[in-house]
Amino acid sequence: MAQYTPMIQQYLRVKADYEDAFLFFRMGDFYEMFFDDAQKASQILEITLTSRDGGSRDRIPMCGVPYHSAKGYIERLIAAGHKVAICEQQEDPKQAKGVIKREVVQVITPGTMMEGAGIQEKENHYLASFEQSGNDYAVAAADLTTGECRTAVFHSFDSALHELAAYGVKEIIMNDTWDAEDVKKINDRFGAVISIEEKADEFEFDALLSKLTHALTRKASVRLYHYLHRTQKRNLDHLQPAEQYEIRDYMNIDYYSKRNLELTETIRSKGKKGSLLWLLDETKTSMGGRMLKQWIDRPLLNEKDINRRLGIVETFMASFFEREELREQLKEVYDLERLAGRVAFGNVNARDLVQLKKSLGQIPYLTDLLKKINGDDVQQLADKLDPCTELFGLLEGALIAEPPISVKEGGMITDGFDPQLDEYRDAARNGKQWIAELEKEEREKTGIRSLKIGYNRIFGYYIEVTKANLGLLEEGRYERKQTLANCERFVTPELKEKETLILEANDKMIELEYELFAQLREKVKDFIPRLQNLARTVSEIDVLQCFAAISESRRFVRPVFSTDRTMIIEEGRHPVVEKVMDAQLFVPNHCVMGPKRDMLLITGPNMSGKSTYMRQVALIAILAQIGCYVPADKAILPVFDQIFTRIGAADDLVSGQSTFMVEMLEAKHAIVNATDRSLILFDEIGRGTSTYDGMALAQAMIEYIHTNIQAKTLFSTHYHELTVLDQSLEHVQNVHVTAAEQEGKVVFLHKVKDGAADKSYGIHVAQLAGLPDTVITRADELLHSFESKEHKPEIINEGQLSFFKEEQVPKPALKEDKTIVSKLLSYDIMEMTPLEAMNTLYALQKSAKKPAN
Ligand code: ADP
Ligand code: MG
């Protein structure tokens, strides 16, 4: 250390505290990086790596970015998953003795960004802390831009992970007592940055913990607050008290199912377009957009709460003109939540505050409009709108209409707001007048008509006289300042005096304006909680008007809830497919499941619309429970506690699991957690393995769900053999999606009808796809020969599978059959871990392959 220059020693001391971040070390107009940081950053940011002498034998690697363009570089490092510690000079270099004092003023991390390209208007930007105690886990998630914080307890690692995934966290805060294995799992799953925070003592944050009743949620929240304060190093007055919630207060949709149903993003592009959120998003404010996404992520369970939302939607639908007006007005309301956040953060400018003022100015109009609409719930919303009149008055009085972005150049505060400022302004304005008069005087005195007074930043004010006229100047009064090609510039004592006055006034004016602005900002801080409340109400109004708009334009109906588990959907539609394809062509379908009909076994050729049908039922249930109308002519639905899906999706590449393993994991998740109030969608389960394997698993699952769970289940299958199950399982009903042959070709009718599909259309689909005629003809021949050999599957006695006809099973495994089946049936799948299931399956298959003796 001693070998380094004092400045490099200072650098190394600071860096030691920020090992996990790039240290941006401010030197004049640049942020410099040294050593490893410089080497890495120069690569990531594609900037030149240089070196400097730092007292040591070897030169020190160095790179830097200009202060004024640092923002973009910081964003790029953050986007690449890094952190940046901003170290500023803390004293005036001219006054410093020795090395300038420097200090880290903020650490910017993927989860704590406040602005920039990484922040989406209509999306929250979450970071979360993750806490563990025995078998209990807590997650606390906060959005620093809005100040929200929510926390809940989970009783398994898996469900906590699902919640973290649902938040889409960018950064996870943990202490370092976690098991390395678990940390790796978290890391693999999310690729989110993991940050360590050791501090979790509570006393500093009492007020923020007031609503928390569970020791673990307190711990998770407090760790998060510590981390935010440690990295942001400032008052974070906008942080709201953490809200504790129970996962069982909301319809539970696990991460896989959310993805499968494409609720907020599509599977393929990971974008919003094509998702349910995309279809629904007619919100007019950014905060409404964020609330909509939160609602979709958490459908309600309480029927009263659901009906309250539906009631407001109904009222809005009946008030077309007021609603249209409301939409226009909402457009004028800016992002109050994030504005409040930036006020607390201290990076709000005068323009932001003018936006705040304008938004507040809209509120009385919103209230008036809502008052014109009937309905108690709407009136309550109207009453909750707090226009923050004092704040509006304050901003209106203080700020001019179009201030500049910079807060350090003046021009923000109105005339008449502050007497001292008015005086400086007068001097500055009058100064121009004085100069004009002086110029006139000088012209008259010297008789030089081309004489003029000008200004530049280096020489200040000067009198300019062309070379030809120099002789006319009075000796001794004019002091030469600058000589140019054909003129000379002078100052006089009088001009100097005016100059001092004007420049001082200007400087003081700018300084005072900044001070006044900072005071104003402080005053706005007092309103943060009220602004946040207002933001919530405006968001709610926005989402509900959005539901009304969508429900009207897309012809949705208000759902009704049943208490006896009846589900009747008449002419239901898949809202997104319908929107994408052309509403005219979409074929609506019923879904009728009385209290006793628990499972629909859906058959039909590929591409006939099985998956679409199943998804549409789930989407209708979700829409109903977020309080929106649903795409159908009529809908009676149970309130579902959970939705599970197993829908063939792409491999889970991130976690490196095979399709079949993911399939089994998802199936297990459903079978273990579903209740008779749940909805299960199993789409062609068993497809990822060999036919018999798959069919056996499918049937075992059907039986189990039917007998032990009784959840409403839509089960599509390409195993036609399974369609006999309706004869032995009371609550199972066959339906099929129809297709017709026209002139030897398949036409999909997309219509769901009772009964099983009678024939596979695979060959015709192949024909449709343009496979050579020879292949088609040969396949036809083969099909006929298979069919003639086929035996109708028998119906099971308990404990026996019907479709294992001896002729169809490969000879060697023949005698093993019964033992394999009985083994299979003896397993308690519920008690198995996925790995055990995999191993068992492997062993089963192995014994099946073994020649019998
Ligand atoms: P399956 O699961 O039976 O193979 P999909 O549900 O994937 O079939 O549907 C295949 C295609 O058929 C969809 O992409 C869609 O374009 C169309 N489709 C499905 N259902 C309908 C419907 N009810 N009305 C019109 N077109 C539909
Ligand atoms: Mg399908």
TrEMBL record:
<dbReference type="Pfam" id="PF05188">
    <property type="entry name" value="MutS_II"/>
</dbReference>
<dbReference type="Pfam" id="PF01624">
    <property type="entry name" value="MutS_I"/>
</dbReference>
<comment type="function">
    <text>This protein is involved in the repair of mismatches in DNA. It is possible that it carries out the mismatch recognition step. This protein has a weak ATPase activity.</text>
</comment>
<keyword id="KW-0067">ATP-binding</keyword>
<dbReference type="InterPro" id="IPR045076">
    <property type="entry name" value="MutS"/>
</dbReference>
<dbReference type="GO" id="GO:0030983">
    <property type="term" value="F:mismatched DNA binding"/>
</dbReference>
<dbReference type="InterPro" id="IPR027417">
    <property type="entry name" value="P-loop_NTPase"/>
</dbReference>
<dbReference type="GO" id="GO:0006298">
    <property type="term" value="P:mismatch repair"/>
</dbReference>
<dbReference type="InterPro" id="IPR005748">
    <property type="entry name" value="DNA_mismatch_repair_MutS"/>
</dbReference>
<protein>
    <recommendedName>
        <fullName>DNA mismatch repair protein MutS</fullName>
    </recommendedName>
</protein>
<dbReference type="InterPro" id="IPR007860">
    <property type="entry name" value="DNA_mmatch_repair_MutS_con_dom"/>
</dbReference>
<dbReference type="InterPro" id="IPR007695">
    <property type="entry name" value="DNA_mismatch_repair_MutS-lik_N"/>
</dbReference>
<dbReference type="Pfam" id="PF05190">
    <property type="entry name" value="MutS_IV"/>
</dbReference>
<comment type="similarity">
    <text>Belongs to the DNA mismatch repair MutS family.</text>
</comment>
<keyword id="KW-0227">DNA damage</keyword>
<dbReference type="InterPro" id="IPR016151">
    <property type="entry name" value="DNA_mismatch_repair_MutS_N"/>
</dbReference>
<dbReference type="InterPro" id="IPR017261">
    <property type="entry name" value="DNA_mismatch_repair_MutS/MSH"/>
</dbReference>
<dbReference type="InterPro" id="IPR036187">
    <property type="entry name" value="DNA_mismatch_repair_MutS_sf"/>
</dbReference>
<keyword id="KW-0234">DNA repair</keyword>
<feature type="binding site">
    <location>
        <begin position="604"/>
        <end position="611"/>
    </location>
    <ligand>
        <name>ATP</name>
    </ligand>
</feature>
<feature type="domain" description="DNA mismatch repair proteins mutS family">
    <location>
        <begin position="678"/>
        <end position="694"/>
    </location>
</feature>
<keyword id="KW-0238">DNA-binding</keyword>
<dbReference type="GO" id="GO:0005829">
    <property type="term" value="C:cytosol"/>
</dbReference>
<dbReference type="GO" id="GO:0003684">
    <property type="term" value="F:damaged DNA binding"/>
</dbReference>
<dbReference type="GO" id="GO:0005524">
    <property type="term" value="F:ATP binding"/>
</dbReference>
<dbReference type="InterPro" id="IPR007861">
    <property type="entry name" value="DNA_mismatch_repair_MutS_clamp"/>
</dbReference>
<dbReference type="GO" id="GO:0140664">
    <property type="term" value="F:ATP-dependent DNA damage sensor activity"/>
</dbReference>
<dbReference type="InterPro" id="IPR007696">
    <property type="entry name" value="DNA_mismatch_repair_MutS_core"/>
</dbReference>
<dbReference type="InterPro" id="IPR000432">
    <property type="entry name" value="DNA_mismatch_repair_MutS_C"/>
</dbReference>
<dbReference type="Pfam" id="PF00488">
    <property type="entry name" value="MutS_V"/>
</dbReference>
<dbReference type="InterPro" id="IPR036678">
    <property type="entry name" value="MutS_con_dom_sf"/>
</dbReference>
<dbReference type="Pfam" id="PF05192">
    <property type="entry name" value="MutS_III"/>
</dbReference>
<keyword id="KW-0547">Nucleotide-binding</keyword>
